[in-house]
Amino acid sequence: MVWFKVTPRLEVSRRSILIITVLAYIVSPFVVLAVLAAAGRNPLVALDALYRGTIGTTAGFAESIVQGTPLMLLALGLAIAYRGKVWNIGAEGQQVFGAIMVTWFVLLFLKDPLPAYVMIPVALLFSLLGGALFAAIPALMKSRLGINEVITTIMMTYVAVQALNWLVRGPFQDKTIPGSYPQSPVFPPQTALPIIVPNSSVTIGIIISVVLCFIGYYILFKTPLGYSIRAVGFNPSAAKTSGISVVRVVNSAMILSGALAGLGGGVYILGVTHSLLPEQASGIGYTAVVVSLLGNLHPLGVIFSSLFFGGLMSGMSSVERALQIPRTLSLLSQGIIIVLILIIQVLVRYEIKRA
Amino acid sequence: MSTDMPNRDAPAIAMQGITKKFPGGVTANDKVDFELRTGEIHGLLGENGAGKTTLMNILYGLYQPDGGTIHVFGQPATFRSPADAIKMGIGMVHQHFKLVSDMTVTENVILGLKSQKGILTDLAPAEARISTLAEQHGLQVDPRSQVWQLAVGQRQRVEILKALYRDAKILILDEPTSVLAPSEVKDFFNSLRGLRESGISIVLITHKLDEVMDVTDRVTVLRKGRKVATQPTSSVDQEKLAHMMIDEAIPPVTDKAKTAPQEVILQVTKLRVFDDRGIDALRGASFEVRKGEILGIAGVSGNGQRELVEALVGLRKPSSGSIAVVNTDITGKTPRNVIDLGVAYVPENRTEDASIADFGLDENLILKDFDRPPICGMLASRVPTFLNSKEITGRAERAISQFGIMATGVSAKAGSLSGGNLQRLVLARELSGSPKLIVVSQPTRGLDVAATEYVRNLLIQQRNRGAAILLVDEDLGELITLSDRIAVMYKGEIVGLLQPLQFSSEEIGLLMTGARRLTSAA
Amino acid sequence: MMAMVLDAASISELIAAIISLSVPMAFAALGEVISERAGVINLGTEGVMLVGAISAFYVSFFFGSNLVGVLLGAAGGALLGLVMAFISISLKQDQILSGLGIYFLGVGLSGFLYEASFGQVGTTIRITGLPQLPIPILSQIPVIGDSLFSQDIIEYLAFVTLILIIIVVGRTTFGLNIRAVGENPSAADTLGVSVTKIRYAAVIIGATLAGIGGAYLALSSHAFQAENITAGRGFIAVAMVYFGKWRPARAFFGTFLFGAAYLLGAFFQVVGSIIPYYFLLMVPYVLTLVVLVGIARGARPPSALGVPYNREGG
Fold first, then answer.
1. In what order do the strands lie in the sheet with B201-206?
2. Where are the beta strands (DSSP E) in B160-200?
3. Which residues does chain B have within 8 Å of residue A7's beta carbon, measured at their own beta carbons?
4. What are the DSSP E strand ranges found in B347-432?
5. In a 10 Å sphere around its CB, with 0-12 CB exposed, 13-18 middle and 19+ buried, how is residue A4 labelled?
6. Rounded to whole angstroms, how far apart are CA atoms B336 and B432?
7. Inter-chain touch C286–A155, beta carbons under 8 Å
8. If both were cysteines, with which of A49, A92, B42, B291 could A322 make a disulfide (CB 3.0 to 4.6 Å apart)?
9. How do B226-232 and B376-379 pair as beta strands?
10. Please, what sign has the CA dihedral across residues C114, C115, C120, C125?
11. Is B81 on the interface with C (CB under 8 A)?
12. How far is CA C22 from the centre of its chain?
């Protein structure tokens, strides 16, 4: 019953991978438009809103960057982990926990904040450590007990989200405002990330993210750690036989990606929301999975794919406002885009012949 | 399928002009003609890589030919999958058994067949029929036992019964004796003769000349994908066959330098190791390997060799006993520790355990020392920094020229290398740095003649240089040629430690099957 | 507070509630057992359950028929199963990634369909659920009669399905094929069993059962909160397959443990306790982690699980 046969191509040129990826970028917005049209909405209005929300206006462009920045950090971490075939799906929980750790630190100094050049780096460090710690549990469960990390990281995410829900209604809640709002006190200005584009919310977060992507590139391809991660991802048996400690590699990959996710959560809370809110669990951790795939699991590719997605998200908000459609449309588009990417990857890497 | 009576005068199998190319440019079969007469045992002879298995896989429907025709008892046939071949009465026993170890013999035999009870499995009548067939052909085995409990020889019987159960009239056997000890081979050939008497036509794929002479009626020789000749066995002898198989003169192996016994490099004492199922695979082995000697380990696969090797290189923790390299205890230590003590390992599964297909040659060569100088820069002599691409490329270039690796460049992916070249790559990595102890398993499996000779000579050179070598090899001839001493393993114990004067296939064969024992139990 | 728990009527209600909460996961777990025994791990089960839920919800609300809703949920599951099978078997993509794609697809599809049909998320729209069908005589038994033998039809179906699955896996040729394909696909291939066909069937059956589970979840919850109705149940079902060591009955009854865990939050919210509400909501997830650690050492999965089959790969 096999109507066609799929065999791997021997050499896949870097050029074809690049072309196909760019093609995926171009096709994706049209996928969204097609879905909208299928739902009975006017695609032309949508296209216009999409354009204005992404690169058409300075506000749109700035918003693209703001949305893309935390994505970039999360996707970078995931790209590294996935290279080691460590399937961290819990970036969402790790970024939430990173934000929780930042909040804890900031609330300690709420009355008497230290100067910004102390508060900000320490806060970001807390977010990094928080994410790393949160990822350590699934890391050890996988490396020492062989437990599937997809399930464990997803379970941890649910735990983090419930912890968030509890904290913003309990110990971290802002009791000084009337009524009972699920939110922490507003952070003092000494914790706000400096803005680099006047009259926008574009902060140094983007610079941090891009720099880390370059560092990530070097780590992955030019250091022993990156080499061992890639080796284990490709062939754990050969890696182990050659003396590489698979346990250490798995732990490193998972904890590193957790740290970067935590940092992403910290950059988001210090750059955009300035307080702990239930919205911290925005689903960005799941979007980052798609973003890292679209970036071909390459730290430099992630720069482009995260900005692209940031643009997509900003554009979609614009479309939602223009056409009055719900947020879940983005989720649907993401699902379709993942499937599209996988299919495109197949077309690039395999030959399909009639059997 | 047509309903005509099969033509009994026609040959059982007639393959004409069969061509098969694989991606990568390899032509496995080049316009091969092959004919199997009814009621004959036909040997298909050739060295590793000559195309024998490919040809038979095509006959069995696992591969589709790029050209040529097949006729079975005179009927034209196209096989899109083994199901088609089975329907036409063809059965195949592969070199690596295709059995589901968790299922019983009966379940394995009836797999893929329609049941009398519709969707429910009908085990009782199947069991009965299997027992009958087993008795009939001298292939006794308990249908209720689970396959993982069976010894290798018994599993082979199950494989044959699978074919007989399906009324196979044509039986293809791929290197069936590779898992048998010499005395078991005798019984096996008698079974084959019995099967021939009952009218079954047999193709025997082998690279062993003595077997061809022993049991076949006719023999076809393949060489580098082409058919060289088909002859009645009575009209040839081993020399003629060897000449047909291999065109080039085989250079003799470098002389082993005569040396006086030197210091002990590897000391194994009363080693016990469990296998994956928690059963004693190695039951108290003790031996030593000295500097400048090759200790061969003989034995039918599955008698503890794998567990021994894994324990030596740190991949498996022994349950008791000790291993010492140059007087340093390494029992239960990690592969990293073992490597750092100067132990090299050439595993039997090159693609899975010794190389990373998606990495380039250069990246494969640094697998063991990528985090230390000169490959990696260091900060304050303790912290690894960056990989040194100049050093890495340099090492790869040297390896390519020194070991004669044929590849498109230093970053050619290891997965694109042929078997022989991949082995050269592995050896280039493992032998650099003059290792004190080399553990090597099935070094020439799947390699062509040129590569085989290269590897054998390389091992002798290392021995002459002063390395201690532990050689696990199923190829008895190779083992005898290369080893200075031979330890024979049977059921997890060393049952004999032989000096060169005692080397003979019969002697080793008897020890391998437990018929004789020269050492006392540990 | 504790005294309240002990009388017969409450125990009965407790059992009934646990069964009701567990059945969706039980269906999904049974389906995943089939899929994994054949060698394919489907992490998209969560997404499949969501699709099943929205399908049943839609039909129940607009057409009033619960059983058609379940059928549509099953169909939706089958469709997603087909996509999963295509990507992971025919295209030989990594099963983990393929499953994730299905998960995202399911989340997005179900949320979008909900809002396309019903408007904004958050507003709870209620549907009438399934009626109870007490078994005569047996339902008179004290305590368990009112719960175990007075279930609705889908709950009974769950137990029936368990028995069917046990029979199929252990005693049919199809089951034999599934087991062979999951342990040694090459062995099955050389005997003419189509590894592709069997795996496709197993994955689609698995997803269909998960779709039914999701459908029942919607019908028994009487309401639908877009992304959170499953709240990780699909992943827990996959974890249950590990817990049950790939045996249908063990995986099935394992999910009851989690039904009880989900119950805790609701129970204590009503009764009041010192443990913060949100901590109780964490219980199912922490429990999953604990359970996984507990059985980690003994687990031996089907040998070919997670590996795409390549005939000419050797």
1. B90-93, B170-174, B201-206, B41-45, B218-223, B226-232
2. 170-174
3. 23
4. 376-379, 383-387
5. exposed
6. 16
7. yes
8. A49
9. unpaired
10. negative
11. yes
12. 9
- Domain spans in chain A, listed from the N-terminal domain onward: 70-302
Q: Which of A354, B70, B349 is nearest to C314 (CA)?
A: B349
Helix or strand holding residue A140 (H, E): helix A116-145
DSSP string, A286-313: HHHHHHHHHTTT-HHHHHHHHHHHHHHH
With vertex at residue A228, the alpha carbon angle to CA A222 and CA A231, rounded to the nearest 5 degrees, is 105
CB B70 within 8 A of CB B90: no
Q: Number of residue pairs across A and B with CB atoms under 8 Å?
A: 76
What residues of A are in contact with residue B23 (Cβ under 8 Å)?
Answer: 7, 10
Q: Looking at per-residue confidence, does A124 or B510 come out higher?
A: A124
Which residues of chain A lie closer than 8 angstroms to C292, CB-CB? 141, 145, 147, 151-152
Structure confidence at residue C120 (pLDDT): 55
Question: Is the pLDDT assigned to residue C84 strictly greater than 90?
Answer: yes
Residue C311 DSSP label: G
Mean pLDDT of C114-137: 63
Which residue carries 């069991």 as its tokens?
B127
**For A14-72, how does the pLDDT look when each residue is reduced to its tens digit (9 = 90+)?**
777 777 777 777 887 787 778 777 777 777 877 787 777 777 777 888 888 999 999 99
In chain A, which stretches have pLDDT less than 70? 1-12, 325-339, 341-342, 345-346, 349-355
pTM: predicted TM-score of the whole model, two decimal places: 0.84
Through-space distance between the first and last CA atoms of chain A, rounded to whole angstroms: 10
Q: Mind telling me how many Å the CA of A142 is from chain B's nearest CA?
A: 19
**Contact call for A342 and C101, based on CB within 8 A:** yes
Instruction: Provide the domain limits for residue C81.
Output: 2-313
- Closest partner residue to A224 among B24, B358, B371, by Cβ? B371
Counting beta carbons within 10 angstroms of the beta carbon of residue B16, is it exposed (0 to 12), middle (13 to 18) or buried (19 or more)? middle
Q: What is the pLDDT of residue B1?
A: 41
Q: Does B54 touch chain C (CB under 8 A)?
A: no
C15: domain CATH number is: 1.10.3470
Which residues does C138 contact at the CB level (< 8 Å), separation at least 6? C145, C149
Could you give the number of structural domains in chain C?
A: 1
| Subunits with 3+ C-beta pairs closer than 8 A to C | A, B
Amino acid identity at A191: T
Cα–Cα dist B133/B109, whole Å: 12
Whether A176 contacts chain B with CB within 8 A: no
Nearest of A227, A83, A233, A241 to residue B366 by alpha carbon = A227
Provide the ipTM.
Answer: 0.85
- Chain C contact for A347 (CB, 8 A cutoff): no
For the beta carbon of residue C289, count every other beta carbon within 10 angstroms.
19
Range with the lowest mean pLDDT among A5-14, A169-178, B425-434, B484-493? A5-14
Question: What pLDDT, on a 0 to 100 scale, did the predictor assign at position B118?
Answer: 76
Q: Is the pLDDT of residue B521 over 70?
A: no
> Which domains, and CATH codes, for chain B?
13-245 (3.40.50.300), 264-512 (3.40.50.300)
* Residue numbers of C between 283 and 302 with CB closer than 8 Å to A: 284-286, 288-289, 292-293, 296-297
Q: Answer whether B149 touches C (CB < 8 Å).
A: no
From edge to edge, which strands make up the β-sheet containing B264-274? B280-290, B264-274, B320-325, B328-329
Express as a percent the part of chain C with pLDDT over 70: 79
* Least Cα separation, residue B119 to chain C (angstroms): 5
Burial B386-408 (b: 16+ CB within 10 A, else e): ebbeebbeebbeebbeebebebe
Residues of A (3-32) whose Cβ lies below 8 Å from C:
4, 6-7
pLDDT at residue A9, as a whole number: 63
Residues A174-188: tens digit of each pLDDT: 888 888 888 999 999
Question: For residue B250, what pLDDT is reported?
Answer: 46
